[in-house]
Amino acid sequence: MTVLESQYYNINRITLLICGLWPYQSTKFRYVRAIFILGVFVTFVIYQLTTFIVAECTINLVTKVLSIVLPMFVCILKHGAFFYNNQKMRHLTNLMWYHWTIIQDEQEVAILEKYTKFSKRFTIYMLHFFVLGMFILIIGHMLPIILDVIEPLNSSRPRHFYILMECFIDEEKYFFWLLLHTIVTISTALMMIISVGTMLMSYTFHACAMFKIASYRIGDAMTETSVETSSLQKDCAICQKIINGVRIHRKAIEFANLIVSDVRKPLFVMLSVGMISLALNLFQVFAALSANNINELFTTFIFVTTQICYLYAGNYAGQIITDHYSKVFNTTYDSRWYTAPLRAQRLLLFIMQRTSKNFSFVLGGIFVISLKGFSTVASMSISYFTVIYSIISR
């Protein structure tokens, strides 16, 4: 483990190790964990789908089952996509270590440390959300048992799962075993989502730091003290600073493109399925509120909150990449480029032409990852929710 890894990315390393996605772990253990996680997800989905065998297939039943099955399908797809692209994650991580070795200026190192601390705090906040979500889920299912201890009745309160499943066994008798399987499945799914999401966010913050360093180098080259006097030696120094800024800018673009280069199609499929899943879970929240079922509301609220936060975080990552890329153009344009040597002006013109075009992540050739994209997904999910509600309420 490198000093940088232990200082800033140790939490990411531990979470990815749990899910079998850390690119530097043993291949044997990685496959063992992957098989275990896949087995947990598949059995949980099967238990959900078997409810169609023993229960009458209605629209309400379909929406309730799919509201859980679709998020599990997204988890399976996400785990598979990043498991088979493990070498790409390793390459990205190696590039991060390499970028730290080529940055020597104190101000630039401070920029890297600032953005790396951002990613570390984001990871910690997501883990807190994970603990809170699991606590609510466990309390929601254990509430009848807790109430029997606090305020007992003549008979025990009924215990049942608010996540529909059919295991062809007595749920009352094997309640704790089924609850354990449910907790393991959902905690594994949340941990996998958080581990992958936080690592992608760490890559995103690193790319933003590299764009910020490029802006800093160009701005530093065009400071007032640098251009107020002219000499051959100073002109060469200015050009060299600009060239160094262009090199870092190119490295930042290459790094940013690598983040989603091999997973654009899986991410687009996950986005589409997640949008439908969000609409179904919104309907389940509305149904729980209408039935005044507080315990079921807790469970569905976890799924809705998780999906909204994840969609927002993913689109926010794309937005800050675009903003930091545009900042390079703004820094160049706002500098005193007109007082720079002619050779430096040509270099700055090249940079402005290159950065005048927006940089963004595009999925499926149609969806741009940005805050505007998040609002589009949210509005479409709400539209699907209203359609589902109008069909069922007829």
TrEMBL record:
Broad class of where this protein is predominantly found: membrane
Protein's cellular compartments: Cell membrane
InterPro entries: 7tm6_olfct_rcpt
UniProt key word Cell membrane: yes
A Pfam family matched in the record: 7tm_6
GO biological process: signal transduction
Superkingdom of this protein's organism: Eukaryota
GO molecular function, a single term: odorant binding
Lipid bilayer topology: Multi-pass membrane protein
Name of the protein in its database record: Odorant receptor
Upper taxonomic lineage: Eukaryota, Metazoa, Ecdysozoa, Arthropoda, Hexapoda
